[in-house]
Structure formats: structure tokens, C-alpha cells
Design brief:
With 427 residues, the chain is mainly beta. 12% of the residues lie in helices and 37% in strands. The protein is built from two helices and 31 strands. A six-stranded mixed beta sheet has the order 2-11-10-5-6-7, with no helix packed on it. Strands 12, 14, 17, 18 and 19 form a five-stranded antiparallel beta sheet that branches. A hairpin with a 2-residue loop joins strand 15 and strand 16. The termini are far apart.
Length: 427
Amino acid sequence: MMIRNERLYKISKIISIQYYIVEAVIFLSSWSALSVKGLQANVPLFEPRENNVSFYAGDTATLLCSVTGLQTRLVVWRRTSEPNPLTIGDFVYSPDDRITVRRVEDKSEWNLIIKDVQIADAGIYECAVSSREKYKRLVLLRVNGTPRRFKGSAHYKDQDSIKSQVLISGQRFVSKGQTILLTCNATGVDFAPDGVDWYINGQKVNHQTMPRVRIYDPVVDNNKRTLLSTLEIRRSLMHDKGIYVCLGPEHRTGSLAVHILDGTPRRFKGSAHDKDQDSIKSQVLMSGQRFVIKGQTILLTCNATGEDFAPDGVDWFINGHKVNNQTMPRVRIYDPVVDNNTRTLLSTLEIRRSIMNDKGTYVCIGPEQRTNSLSVIIYEKSSIDKRDDGSPSHGYVSDSAIPCCSFKWDKQCSIVMLCLSATWFVT
């Protein structure tokens, strides 16, 4: 009996020892895994970016560097041929005022910016992390000695003065069934834009709601700081007509009115300017002052004509956003003036005490989704003191601001003149 108890005691002791050994192994394995993960998280990693860039003399050169896992470390830029750093974190160490560092937090980027780059700036630059270990990334900068400028004519442009811009191009008149092909060329300030947004008649292009619309992958040129986006609609339909808007960097926009032709030729009588009135259907005409001094009133009119009777109403869009009194309290749309005899509706939009952010593309959408647009530019008062003929610009209203008078509509003219009186300035 004693022998049996002694055997059981030895077996239980062996089992307990094995249990503690297993626990120790599990603990050591977990601790090792955590240590490895911790070490990996503490190691700075360079994200892939272009490391061979070329610019023209006089351009603003941008050298990209993206680092994750910095923690308390700093990113240091220096030229490999020089011992002293150019930048340390956000601090610019170099005495050259052309050199700055731009931090893009959402991309973990610390980009070196060299304004008015010259041939002497060409070479190899190092993006390094301040630590005992060597974590660095090299970027080769090439500079073309020919400045990208045009001199000797009225088309001379100083590239330093060119900021971000958006240009849209393509065929304005497309026959039904043909392909609509539009291109948007967006230019950034220091580097190419990340992307652009397309709008059709105020609606953002969405592949789910607009399956026939195809937007190709953009073509990026970092040397020219441009992004080229292409929109395509195959086998166009009549309702594809309208205003196509491309929204780029800094909310800059470009627009193009696309007209779909149903194949019926437009006839002319008597002369080249005599149009067959039977072929004219519903239409939208928009007018107003394109150039407005900051602080003055923006006043635009939309003249919409229906096919059989006057339209029920029109919709206004500013830079692709539908005008809403809740989101745009400064924008006022007056009650429309309807003339059933001429099947027209006149709508007036007003923004008092204009600010610089009021510039952009104003679109009026009428019957059958017909649209018209007008680009409004806001200037500081000191920038436009005179018109082209040398006379003062203040208090001047062009005849185009009152389109109804050309049609001899007395009621509409009187109302528009009352509105315009609020914008009359005397200096």
C-alpha cells in the first residue's frame, strides 16, 4: 500500500513539473512575439515615392519623402555633397530662403521644397531619420537649364505667377450615338494634384448611378505639376447634354457645355444669320457681370424658355453645389418673373457684399436639363480701377447685364433695373 502511494506521489510530481514547463514555454513565446512586434513598430519605414525627379530652371522642385514609425524621431534633409543639413523636422536650417519643408500628415510625408530651382541645385539629396541606426533614402534631382517661359510676345507668362488651375477641353457638339470624350488638365501649386472630381449637370459622377460614364485612370506629370483626367460616354443619348464640370485643387473648376445633336439639320433662311424658328425648342440664357470688385453685389439672371409653355422653375448651382438657403444664407434667389406669352421665366440670383470665395462657375439648369453657365471673377478694388478704354470701372454696368431689354420685355426690364440699382457704385 505504501509503495502504491509513493508511485502516485511521484507521478503527480512529474505531471506538475511538466505543467510548469509548458506554462513557462508559452510565456516566453508570447513575450518574444511581443518583443519582435514592438521592435518592428519602432523601426522607421520609408514608403515608396519617386526618387528620380526632373524640373526646369525656375520651377518649384518638390522632393518626396514618406516615413512611418517615426515616433519621437525627426526627418532630416541634406544634400549629400554638403555636411550641414537643410531641414530638421519643421525647422529650416539652411540660410537659403528658397528652401522649405512641407509636411503632409495624412501621407506621412516630409517633402523638401526648392523654389526657383537652378542648375546648381541639381544633385543627390538625402532624406534621413535622426537615430543611431542609419535610416535614409536618396533622391536624385535633375534640372533642365532652359527656363520654361515664353518671351518676346503678348503671350509671355512668368511660371512663378502661375498657381493651380483647371482646364477642360473636348467637343461641345456631339451627334447622338457618338462618343463624348472630355479631358481635364489640372495643375497644382507645388506638385501634381491627387485627383479631380467630375460633375454632370450638378451631379457628382458616380459609377453606381451613372454606369455609362467612364473615367480613365489619370496621367500624372510631376515635372509639370499636372494631372490629366479623361471622361468618356459611349453611344451618347439626348439626355447626356448639359454642363460638365471638373473640380480640381483649391476648389478651382473648369466647365464645358455639351450639346447633343439629333441629326436634324438646322436650316437657315435668307442669310447666314436667319434661323428657322421652328427648330428652336426650350433654352436657357444666362447673363450678368463676370468681373466683380470685392464687396460689390453679384447679380446674375437666368432666362429660361419652355417648349410649349413657361418653365415651372430653374435650379442654381455654384461650383457644382446646388444653391440652398440653409447652407448658403448669403445667396438670395428672387421670385421668378413668368411671361406665358413668350413661354419664358426670368430668375435672378443675388449675393451682396461679395467676398473672394464667391468666385467660380455659376450654373442655371432649366427645362429638359438644359443649362447655361457663367464664370464670375472677384477682384480686389485696387486691381481693376479702369476699363480697357481707360474710364473708371466703378458704377459701370454693361448692357449684357440686362438681356431682357434686347427682347423689349418691359415688365422684366423694370424689375432687373430695380435689382441693378442696388449694385450701382459711385466713387
